[in-house]
Amino acid sequence: MIDTQTEPYILKYVGNVTETDHGVDFLVTGMAAKALPGIPGWMTGESPEQQGIETTMPNLPRDLQLPGLDQIEYRCRVVALGPQTVRVAIAPAEHQMWREPEVWPGIMVTATNGDQSAELRETNDTLEIRLAGCTLRIGKSPLTLALYREETQLLRTGERLRQVAGFPMAPPVIAANGNINLNLEMGVGEKIFGFGEQFSRFEKSGQELVLEVNDALGTGTGLAYKPVPVWHSTAGYSAFVNSGATLTADVGHRRPSVLGITLDDAGLDLILFAAASVEQRLTDYTALTGRAKRPPLWAFGFWMGRCRYHSDTEMLAVGSTMREHQVPGDVLHLDPDWLVVDRLNTDFIWNSDRFGDRGAFVEGLRSQGFRLSMWELPYLDPASPVFEEAQEGGHLLRMPDGGLAEIQGTPTPDGRMRALFDVTNPATAQWILDKQKPFFDDGVAVIKTDFGEGCPSGAAAADGTPGNYIHNLYPLRYNGLFSDIIGELTGRTPLVWGRSGWAGSHRYPGQWGGDAESTVVGMQATLRGGLSYATCAPGYWSHDIGGFYGPELTPGLYIRWTQFGALSPLMRAHGLRPREPWEFGPDALRVCRDWIRLRYSLLPYLWQVGGEVETEGLPFIRPLCLHYADDPVALSIDDEYLFGGDILVAPVMDDGMQPVTRSIYLPAGTWYDFFTDERFEGPTFIQRQVSIDEMPVFVRSGGVVPRVEVTPEVRNTDDLRSQPWTVHVWGEVSQAAIDGLEGFDGPASIAEIVRHG
Description:
- By secondary structure, the protein is an alpha+beta fold.
- The strands form 8 sheets. Strands 1, 2, 3, 4, 5, 11, 12, 13, 14, 15, 16, 17, 18 and 19 form a 14-stranded antiparallel beta sheet that branches. It has a 6-stranded parallel beta sheet with strand order 25-22-21-20-29-28.
């Protein structure tokens, strides 16, 4: 057997074909290969004719050192997971994936999303696996892949792409240095989006993205807290790489017509979705990877936090001031000052010197109408009194040599190492649950599961997760563990507030966009990240209103960010410095209070969208191209979004208090100004003069927006739970759309229907 860890091989020849219940198994022979020295192209030791080399070219390279005719064999399995979902796994015979359950390595929760019937048709040249709704065609010599919906080709590998002398530039599959590389040909006009929470342009053409979980240290560093190996093509397919390995996506960056996917692993587990719409493909994807359950109603209220509140007295004073100013709010967030040892450490030891008796403190907040959110992370400081207990109990992650794993990528303020909880160990899960139980017994409502990006590659997890997977899968395991603990301790739908993530993290709501800079570009990057994440991890995503760090936040930017936050899936103000609205002057207090009240009035609408997230796997916040896939302009719009399916929001990216002109794109159809009912016909760009009090919001014709009245006396969502609703409709709406509205605790109580347009 040739060492696949060092020499490159182009996987070329299919043989030993065996039909299976839902697909086909076969072997692929790989030929030793070399990249041409100094110029684009690949070659094997085969004859020029076999390689398709143009031997008559005057600039044909001479005296090339051919790689010889060494061969390797890889296994390949193609399986229908559903009528329009097909799985292609290719790896050496010794790869772990062949010995594990179908849902390995834990990103998927099930291995089917529907009818798995498949028909194999074989000729001398091809294999065709025909599903109910799509066909995968596999070339035998050389290996190629092409995906079809009926007669429309959606995807093809890059075998046609060659340089002038005929050397292939993008062989379909290359194995080299323990990695595997898939090259797809991008068609004329084909666009790609996805890859998780990326803060760059939403449409990814020309970008090279390294999908590796990082403490990104902001939204402008080029790093990502929540990358996801999922992408969507305007050619009509979506793809998911079911792996924890680092993935590099070259989206026409080096070669304009090639989407190159390189995985830091010897095996590739690729799942392709061929449904006609992105919405249906997300539904099919989340059927495999899980969906976010709708959180409690109070989670949709306003959250107030700061890094840091230093005492119970200070937090109770903030709560009291919010009530004095009649600012609705449901959650107050407590950052690490609740700990005695509080720098990159969670040991569950309550700091009673700062916050007194925990039960009394939580009760004090409850009397004001607030629930308590608490910061935690999965790291443990050796200075902690529980460090020895955790180490002796086997609750800390280790390296293969038995030494403790240490966080990487996040500097420690004191220079000491930080250990990590082994969140894959059932005994550790029980240990943490026992530590957390007194907190929830006292009434703590939610945990902010911060960090999690620091797991070192190569760590030896208790559940056997491979060392090259554990870094990226650690956030998924970490947030899943804490979500499960909260669910068990509270008996309700759990909720975390996580920063790090990977594929599958969306089923553990919610997440927020990390530490954005308090600038206009920080706000812009935040929205781009949220839209990109929504297409790969559809669920509950939010952000820190005002940004987390950086220049002194201006009143104007605070207002604009609050408007954006009011129409986001979850709403939280948080930062290094104060983020309470009265801290930015009377105008900011007035405007922000109005927008917070507007959000509370929309709680019935938010509740309906939450139902779509849970039952259909659609995201809460949506890029325009999700519902307007045939609109060539929609894909380029990453400063607007759909809030659910009926409302379009155009945040104002500005940090001043003066009116500004906002250019807004409205897709095809009839649209109404949410506040004035002014009518517009799309597709069109419009210009609006927007005062500091305003943010452009529109409703599509056919939109149904249930609302509830919010008076100045309303403190929180509990005050609105039993109030009757007013249902606002725009244009022609069926009675069934109104009758189908779901109430907070059963059938909706509708007092009035108001028709617009």
